[in-house]
């Protein structure tokens, strides 16, 4: 049994402590906004925040997360500037990687609201987008800064 605190709610989940967080949030809690991509910590599709730090949930066992504050894409308000910019600029193409991208961008601007273009590109390049929406992602992060 693990106790998790996700998007402001406490959950008790009956899983092995080694279970990756991604499985728990999708399969046990029904928070399916966070996506499974590579399962190896490489693509970024599964990114959530743990105490405001972007974290690859596919490789993070739940035992390391007890009593920590976790935020998924569902926990970011729909009127947050990052989500608004994403909609206004119609960033997604297939959309699969976008929850992870948005979570990363949200954390970046929280950490550094005045992040430079170079910093934005550098941080966001840790996420793979097979549709190649990188140009719109950069524009959306910059719009969210205004
Ligand atoms: Fe976790 Fe790719 S699914 S990094």
Blueprint of the fold:
Layout: E1 2-6, E2 9-13, H1 21-28, E3 47-50, E4 53-56, E5 69-71, H2 81-88, H3 98-111, H4 117-124, H5 134-144
Parallel strand pairs: 1-5
Antiparallel strand pairs: 1-2, 3-4, 3-5
The structure holds FE2/S2 (inorganic) cluster.
* Secondary-structure element pattern, one letter each: EEHEEEHHHH
Which range does the strand content fall in? 5-15%
CATH architecture of the largest domain: Roll
**Class of the largest domain in CATH?**
Alpha Beta
Helix content: 25-40%
Broad shape: globular
Give the bound compounds: FE2/S2 (inorganic) cluster
Largest sheet: 5 strands, mixed
Number of strands: 5
The neighbouring-strand order within the major sheet is 2-1-5-3-4
- C-alpha Rg (nearest Å): 15 Å
CATH superfamily of the largest domain, please? Beta-grasp domain
**What number of structural domains do the residues give?**
2
Domain 2Fe-2S ferredoxin-type: 1-76
GO molecular function, one term: metal ion binding
Organism: Hydrogenobacter thermophilus (strain DSM 6534 / IAM 12695 / TK-6)
InterPro entries: 2Fe-2S-bd (IPR002888), 2Fe-2S-bd_dom_sf (IPR036884), 2Fe-2S_ferredoxin-like_sf (IPR036010), 2Fe-2S_ferredoxin-type (IPR001041), 2Fe2S_fd_BS (IPR006058), Beta-grasp_dom_sf (IPR012675), Diverse_Oxidoreductases (IPR051452)
Written account of the structure:
The protein is α+β, with helices and mostly antiparallel strands. It folds into two domains: 2-75, Ubiquitin-like (UB roll), CATH 3.10.20.30; 81-144, DNA polymerase, domain 1 (Orthogonal Bundle). The protein is built from five helices and five strands, in the order E-E-H-E-E-E-H-H-H-H. A five-stranded mixed β-sheet has the order 2-1-5-3-4, sandwiched between helices. The mean pLDDT is 97. Residues 1-76 form the 2Fe-2S ferredoxin-type domain. It comes from Hydrogenobacter thermophilus (strain DSM 6534 / IAM 12695 / TK-6).
């Amino acid at each position: 049994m693990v106790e998790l605190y996700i998007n402001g709610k406490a959950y008790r989940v009956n899983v092995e402590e080694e279970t990756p967080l991604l499985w728990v949030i999708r399969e046990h809690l029904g928070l399916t906004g966070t996506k499974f991509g590579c399962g190896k910590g490489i693509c970024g599709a599964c990114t959530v925040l743990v105490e405001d730090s972007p974290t690859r949930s596919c490789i993070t066992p739940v035992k390391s997360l007890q009593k920590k504050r976790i935020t998924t894409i569902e926990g970011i308000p729909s009127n947050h500037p990052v989500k608004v910019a994403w909609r206004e600029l119609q960033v997604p193409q297939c959309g699969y990687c976008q929850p992870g991208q948005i979570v990363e961008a949200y954390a970046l601007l929280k950490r550094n609201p005045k992040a430079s273009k170079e910093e934005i590109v550098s941080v966001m390049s840790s996420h793979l987008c097979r549709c190649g929406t990188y140009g719109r992602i950069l524009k959306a992060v910059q719009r969210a800064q205004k």
